[in-house]
Amino acid sequence: IMLHSTLALSLLLIAVSSNLAMAIKKEKRAPQTLSRGWGDEITWVQTYEEGLYRAKKSNKPLMVIHHLEDCQYCQALKKAFAENEEIQEMAQNNFVMLNLMHETTDKNLSPDGQYVPRIMFVDPSLTVRADITGRYSNRLYTYEPQDIPFLIENMKKALRLIQTEL
């Protein structure tokens, strides 16, 4: 009987500790739901207001990605964005990052319309950088998967403009 209860206790401890380990792992990954697939290693802010506050405080530009779940162009861009190491690293280290599935009340974030995907940069001085545009004249702030190198250049430009203008 002694052996039986020791075995039962050991099994119980193993079950508890593996559940605990899973809970801890889950706990650690929980905040990443804000990434919505754009990059789980990136620290994302939850709202535009929080993004502006963090940008000002950290003196980093805010990068705002407008997208929708059921938009095939957004999905394609998201995949390219998430798979690009240079973008992921810059996003994590040099930017305040926000991805939104709704429009903000700030009309400066939709200077040429409310389409998706749309990526805009906001300076730490809280100025929306309408001058940092993509390749398409009809949708100035959209990017396609093949435009990733161009987006990288624009991220670098957003960083450069801070240093020269502030």
What does this structure look like?
The protein is mainly alpha-helical and 166 residues long. The protein has a domain at 48-159: Glutaredoxin (3-Layer(aba) Sandwich). The protein is built from 5 helices and 3 strands, in the order ααβααββα. It has helices spanning 2-29, 48-58, 72-83, 85-94, 148-165, and strands at residues 62-66, 96-100, 118-122. It has a 3-stranded mixed sheet with strand order 2-1-3. Helix 4 (85-94) runs parallel beside helix 5 (148-165). The chain is elongated and about 80 Å long. Residues 26-32 have low confidence and may be disordered. This is Anterior gradient protein 3. One of its GO terms (molecular function) is dystroglycan binding.
Short account of what is shown:
GO terms for molecular function: dystroglycan binding. The chain is mostly helical. It has helices at residues 2-29, 48-58, 72-83, 85-94, 148-165, and strands spanning 62-66, 96-100, 118-122.
Characteristics:
166 residues, 9% strand, Glutaredoxin, 5 helices, mainly alpha
